[in-house]
Write a structure and sequence with these properties.
The complex is a heterodimer of chains A (319) and B (238). Chain A has 319 residues and is mostly helical. Chain A has 13 helices and no strands. The longest helix of chain A has 32 residues, at 35-66. In chain B, 31% of the residues lie in helices and 21% in strands. The chains are: A mainly alpha (319), B alpha/beta (238). The interface between A and B is medium-sized, with 30 and 31 residues.
């Protein structure tokens, strides 16, 4: 049965409540701290986790719809592989001479350029490939090639650069400051506008290119817009936080399951809520131990059981 | 008295890429027509329907009053029948996908007309294939189609659903100013409801029957290759 308007108000309330509770817990975790620590370390970290989770979830939702694949996420199109190549080039060719802060900015910028480069290839390809499945295969192939190049780079570089590259690729919400948060917020805002304006197109494209075309929907344009928004958000998040998997795949499924609909008018805001909740949980978990763990790993620990649950449960929403 | 002609097709050539499938296709689509389109696999049934729907080659130019329902639309979970029809009215809804009150009323009427009101708020993934096929017809009615093209509407349906869908097709044709063309391999059931037969013959020639039973039977038999001839057609077919 579909949720009534009344039900969904409660779900929204509960969801936002959980998110705020998690955010407070994450802020206060590790004991009381000075204003400095709260303002310069913890608040930016919590906000980064929220923004990154929401953006990756929104990107994943659009990818799953336009590619009609329940396991599609921002990474399936090779965007994160492009970011890795950029980051790899910056760390391994730049050498260890430069100071840490400059290295950080260089890696972020190079990762962003790499991600946009991969996105540009995908965008060009999406004009040539006319079906969702051929585009999906192209994206996966692109990812393989770019990852192979990253491996070649790793193989030929020294230990110091390798360590630097690994610390970026492990993923973390702690590397972004207020400037990065502003950039991520703006990108997310643009991403939301693109997705909202495309929402009825995202709905109809799930019923197949043929049916969408016969109903008068501009299939190529819908797919292009979705990939553009997805690339922008993924490139920005990945360059600051490293490649973070799972949230993009899992968050849309949870959102559709909870609200019992695949309509993008509901799923777009809902997946941002579930995405932010997942990445905040991952951040909280990564700070539970003595030493902070890589966020990408805790994300997988949170994400994998959910994916398995979806697979075992059988038919999910939006399939 | 001959019914009003909705569309006249004259000397249409169909094909895709550089491949020519059939040329010299001519027939009239009249009000009240329920045309059964038959022919071997790959003879051009789907291509002809797509050409009529304005989707020939790379060019898309959808005519106002012709709506095509393709074969095998995925039953995406998470949409009700009503939402599905709303989504299918893509070019008539506002940016958030909402319909005008007039269109909403038309949607309600179409659902009632096809006797689907008890299914209107069910998730489409829980509908039977036959019920979902009728949801496509609701969509065509809401979109004010006068000619509805259906690509293999009865494929993969069990006997009960097949009869139910064909019956609904016939009912739609009896409405004022409407016509239906459906492609099918179910010649037996199709012949019971159609008013004329369109056939891609085994000899590569496209034929349109008159509305007499014998003409329809003769036209259907042209789709069988000469070596098997009409004798090979099961006798109970006609």
């Amino acid at each position: 049965m579909k949720r009534t308007g009344h039900d969904s108000t409660y779900i929204w309330g509960a969801g936002i409540g959980i998110l705020i509770m998690l955010a407070c817990w994450d802020l206060l975790h590790g004991g009381l701290a000075s204003g400095q620590v709260l303002w310069h370390l913890r608040t930016p970290r919590v906000l980064t986790a929220l923004l990154a989770g929401a953006a990756l979830a929104l990107a994943g939702t659009q990818m799953q719809s336009v590619l009609r694949n329940p396991l599609a996420d921002p990474y399936i199109m090779g965007v994160s592989a492009g970011a890795s190549l950029g980051a790899g080039l910056a760390t391994m060719l730049g050498g260890p001479d430069t100071s840490g802060a400059i290295q950080g900015i260089t890696i972020a910028a190079a990762a962003f350029i790499g991600a946009l480069g991969a996105s540009a290839v995908i965008l060009l390809a999406s004009r040539r490939f006319r079906t969702a499945s051929s585009l999906l295969i192209f994206g996966v192939m692109l990812g393989f090639i770019v990852n192979a190049l990253v491996s070649v780079l790793q193989f030929t570089s020294d230990a110091e650069s390798l360590k630097m590259f690994y610390s970026w690729s492990a993923g973390s919400f702690s590397n972004a400051g207020w400037n990065e948060i502003i950039i991520m917020s703006l990108t997310l805002a643009v991403g939301i506008i693109i997705a909202r304006n495309n929402s009825k197109g995202l709905d109809i494209i799930m019923f197949g290119d043929e049916f969408a075309t016969m109903s008068g929907a501009p299939v190529q344009k819908i797919r292009l817009r979705a990939i553009l928004g997805c690339s922008l958000m993924t490139a920005t998040v990945t360059s600051f936080c490293g490649p973070l998997g799972f949230v993009g795949i899992v968050a849309p499924h949870i959102a559709r399951g909870i609200f019992r609909t695949s309509s993008h008018r509901t799923v777009i805001p809902a997946c941002m809520l579930t995405g932010a909740t997942i990445s905040l949980t991952a951040d909280l978990l990564s700070h539970m131990g003595k030493n902070p763990l890589p966020a990408a790993s805790t994300m997988a620990i949170v994400g994998v059981p959910v994916i398995l649950y979806i697979l075992l449960k059988g038919r999910g929403y939006g399939e | 008295m001959e019914n009003r002609i909705l569309h006249s097709i004259r000397n249409l050539t169909i094909g895709y890429g550089d491949k020519l499938l059939c040329d010299g296709i001519s027939f009239d689509i009249c009000e009240g027509d329920c045309l059964m389109l038959c022919g071997a696999n790959g003879s051009g049934k789907t291509t002809l329907l797509k050409s009529l729907a304005g989707l020939s080659g790379q060019q898309v130019c959808l005519p106002e009053d012709i709506v095509m329902i393709p074969a095998r639309i995925p039953k995406v979970a998470g949409f009700t029948l009503r939402e599905f029809v709303r989504i299918s009215c893509f070019s008539r809804s506002d940016m958030s996908g909402r319909l005008s009150p007039v269109m909403e009323a038309a949607l309600g009427n179409a659902i009632d007309a096809l006797d689907m009101s008890h299914l209107a708020d069910r998730d489409i993934s829980t509908l039977s294939d036959g019920e979902f096929q009728k949801a496509g017809l609701v969509s065509a009615l809401v979109r004010k189609a006068s000619v509805i093209l259906l690509d293999e509407p009865t494929a993969f349906l069990d006997a009960e659903n097949r009869i139910s869908v064909l019956k609904t097709l016939r009912e739609i044709c009896d409405r004022k100013g409407m016509a239906v063309i459906f492609s099918t391999h179910d010649l037996h059931d199709g012949l019971k409801v159609c008013t004329k037969v369109l056939a891609f013959g085994a000899d590569g020639i496209f034929r349109c029957s008159s509305d007499s039973i014998s003409s329809m039977n003769d036209t259907v038999s042209t789709i069988f290759s000469s070596s098997r001839s009409a004798a090979a057609i099961p006798q109970d077919l006609f």
